[in-house]
Write a structure and sequence with these properties.
The complex is a heterodimer of chains A (496) and B (152).
Chain A lengths: L2 H12 L2 H19 L5 H8 L8 H26 L8 H12 L3 H35 L3 H12 L10 H15 L2 E2 L6 E2 L13 H19 L19 H23 L4 H16 L11 H17 L1 H7 L5 H12 L8 H4 L1 H29 L7 H20 L2 H19 L5 H23 L11 H24 L4
Antiparallel strand pairs in A: 1-2
Helix pairs in contact in A: 1-16, 2-3, 2-4, 2-16, 3-4, 3-14, 4-5, 4-6, 4-16, 5-6, 5-12, 6-10, 6-12, 6-13, 6-16, 7-19, 7-20, 8-19, 9-17, 9-18, 10-11, 10-12, 11-12, 17-18
Chain B lengths: L4 H21 L13 H18 L7 H7 L5 H22 L1 H15 L5 H22 L12
Classes of the chains: A mainly alpha (496), B mainly alpha (152).
Keywords (chain B): Membrane, Transmembrane, Transmembrane helix
InterPro entries (chain B): DUF1468
Pfam families (chain B): TctB
Amino acid sequence: MGAMEGIAQGFQVAFSLQGILFVLIGVIAGTLIGMMPGLGPISAIAIMIPVTYGMEASVALIMMAGVYYGAVFGGSTSSILLNAPGISGTVASSFDGYPMAQRGEAGKALAIAAISSFVGGTVSVVLLMLFAPMLSQVAVSFGPAQYFALMFLGLTAISSLSDGSTTKALITATIGFMTATIGLDGQTGTSRFTFNNPNLMEGIDFLVIALGLFAIAEVCFLIIKRKDTSLSDQGDIGSLRLSKEDFKEMRGPMTRQSFLGFLLGVLPGAGATIASFIGYISEKRIAKNPEKFGKGSIKGLAAPETANNAATSGAFVPLLSLGIPGSGTTAVMLGALLVLGIQPGPLLVQESPDVFWGIIASMYIGNIFLLILNLPLIPYIAKILKISRPLLISLVIIFSLIGVYSISFNTFDLYVLLFFGVVGYFMRILNFPAAPFILAFILGGMMEQSMRQALTASGGDVMALISDPVSISLYVVSALSFIVPLIRTRKNRPAA
Amino acid sequence: MLKTMNQKVSIFLILLAVGYLYAAYNLKKYPYVPVDADAVPKVLGYLLIGLAIILFFDKSSETEEDKEKRDVPKKEIPIMLGVGGFIFLYIFLLEILGFVVTSALFIFGCSLFLGYSRHVMNAVVSIMVPGVLYVTFTYLLNIILPQGILPF
């Protein structure tokens, strides 16, 4: 069967009445689960696996695609409306989404998120169809040295994540990296900075830090402003309708980040989180008005939303072509495929083209349904903002606490959450940006491991880190991404 | 001596880095490991000291907006500490009384403490939200939350 025939067959299955019904169920279930504190696409897919028992493989996969995209969108809503990102991939969406919601444009922010997600997801599915076998070869050629260079590129973006002092951004990033070193060392098994506390052996979970620095810190400000009724008194949550100018502003980031996000998603381990941060940062770097970022910029919201969705499709490249899951979500997806009796790998496209193309077609359909279903629901979802402040404060605290508890089942993590909430509050009042902390926490641990693996493999030869064209190119891009904004800032500085 | 807030913060950061470095130097070392577990922490510790020193001598002055951010009304401090106390109590009681009872008490008590005066609505939300969350997590998602004193 040729590729075109395969695609046609895939779409035929996806567009059947049964296919449409199950994608509908999947999108609704995924969105609801994704909105739950602490539950992201991984949990959503895992939870839905038992539901697919006995189903026809192609239909089950269509439902899974709906669950997947629904969960990613559901995660964005809590980021945008409450500044409480439930999963790491939606942290960057809160940088501009939350300020937009705060100034009464919650509907618009959610619409931008939905449309950007749709574009990112759809473009990347087309790219997946075209380049899956070829890109998988490139992805597996990435070794520890190349990953180190990639993480380094991510870290050079730290200065872009701060409006004010670069020193402060670097300080918070350093502390974020230091926090990532807590726990058992992956290479030697040394217990680092745990003070013999068994609860710290596995390190601190990302969610504890993200909810602490963002949601609990925000609660402190909500407490101070709890009598300010300006937001809840608004007659509306703002129109969902986007103007021509809004679309014009979204067009650039959506186009660029669809491609960049997809490429980053293809790399095993990079995934939606790094794609969303790099998407946000790269758009800020090239923006004409970078000062608008972090204050409710349309580009600042469209970029990470497009990138994280594009990356989620990109992550399917190594899964479908090589049978290697490159992210947590695709690992669970691999489990789901195996349960359905499908073995992903190089032979999948030859032996079961209907399944291969069926999965891709179902992702496309999942995206369309997500948009059709969620846009009308946005006014109801955004009503969260109209809840009275004292009640909203209590609910945000409960959601954060239970989100953390549901991943660790340990009350110690709740105390750590409270601690990071206090840290986040002080960081905000002292003008230390929280985003570099999160970025360094996520990238730092991976960067350290990649560097040490590369050096162990080369017997301690530092040149191993800079000896191949891919790494050198990444270092050059890193240097440029650090130097170019500095030159631009100097040029823009008025003469004394 | 410490005139600006940046200087006060930088002293705190230096103390934090020194403590971190002390712990890093006391990590167990292994022979024949090209980069041991203490290498990166040591670099990070010294980097933080360096950055804290730069911050100490940072001459950029604070804007009025920056100062305003720090200006928390004194009467709000006990309220914030009170909410912190509520959270502590919640964490302590969560596994004893169970998710539904503790959460219901927390939502009602905390909202009341923060000045929410619609008591009937408060009571309905306090019971409904934990109830729905408990049923969803425990029965639909198979994520077991503490049952506590309730029989289900």
